[in-house]
C-alpha cells in the first residue's frame, strides 16, 4: 500500500514538472529578434531592378536548395547560380568555379556597383570561395549554403567581413 502511494506521488510530481517545463517553453522569447523591415527592403530592392528579365530569373530560382556542383533546380551552388544568371540574363560566359570567376571582372568599389555586377567572398579566410550578384541598394542574390537561393543585404557584418572583391564582367 505504501509502495503504491509513493508511485502515485512520483507520477503526480512528474506530471507537474512536465506541465511546468512545457509551459515555460511556450513563454520563451526568441533570442534573435527578426527584422520586420528586411522583407520589405528586399521587396523594394527587387521591385526596383532595371531588368525585368533578372527579376523573373531570381523569382524562378528563389528558394532552390544549395547543392555543391549543382546546376539545376534540384540544387545549385553559388558559382553555378552566377554562371547561369550571367549567361541567361547578360549573355556572359563565366568560368564554372567562383575563384576563376573572380579573375574575369574589372574591380569596382561597393559604391560603384551596378545591377548584375559580381561580388566575391572568402568565408574560409583564403581564396575566393563564394560569389553573389549585386542588385541595388546594398542587396545581392546568391545561393546560400544554408538557405538556398536568396536575396541578402551586403551590409550584414558576415558579408562585410568576408567580401574580398567586386566588379563587372570584362567583355
From TrEMBL:
Q: Which domain of life is it from?
A: Bacteria
The cross-references to Gene3D superfamilies, in alphabetical order and at most eight, read: endopeptidase domain like (from Nostoc punctiforme)
GO terms classed as biological process = proteolysis
Write out the entry's keywords from A to Z. Hydrolase, Protease, Signal, Thiol protease
Start and end residues of each NlpC/P60 domain: 48-171
One GO molecular-function entry: cysteine-type peptidase activity
Q: What's the family?
A: Belongs to the peptidase C40 family.
Stored PANTHER family:
ENDOPEPTIDASE NLPC-RELATED, MUREIN DD-ENDOPEPTIDASE MEPS/MUREIN LD-CARBOXYPEPTIDASE
Protein name per the record: Hydrolase
Amino acid at each position: 500500500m505504501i509502495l503504491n502511494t509513493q508511485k502515485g506521488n512520483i507520477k503526480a510530481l512528474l506530471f507537474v514538472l512536465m506541465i511546468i517545463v512545457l509551459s515555460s517553453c511556450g513563454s520563451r522569447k526568441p533570442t534573435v529578434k527578426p527584422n520586420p523591415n528586411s522583407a520589405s527592403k528586399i521587396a523594394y530592392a527587387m521591385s526596383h531592378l532595371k531588368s525585368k528579365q533578372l527579376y523573373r530569373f531570381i523569382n524562378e530560382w528563389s528558394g532552390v536548395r544549395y547543392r555543391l556542383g549543382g546546376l539545376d533546380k534540384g540544387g545549385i551552388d553559388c558559382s553555378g547560380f552566377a554562371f547561369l544568371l550571367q549567361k541567361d540574363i547578360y549573355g556572359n560566359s563565366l568560368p564554372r568555379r567562383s575563384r576563376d570567376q573572380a579573375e574575369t571582372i574589372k574591380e569596382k568599389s561597393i559604391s560603384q556597383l551596378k545591377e548584375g555586377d559580381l561580388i566575391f567572398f572568402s568565408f574560409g579566410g583564403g581564396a575566393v570561395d563564394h560569389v553573389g550578384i549585386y542588385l541595388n541598394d546594398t542587396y545581392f542574390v546568391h545561393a546560400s549554403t544554408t538557405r538556398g537561393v536568396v536575396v541578402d543585404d551586403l551590409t550584414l557584418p558576415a558579408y562585410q567581413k568576408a567580401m574580398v572583391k567586386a566588379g563587372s564582367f570584362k567583355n
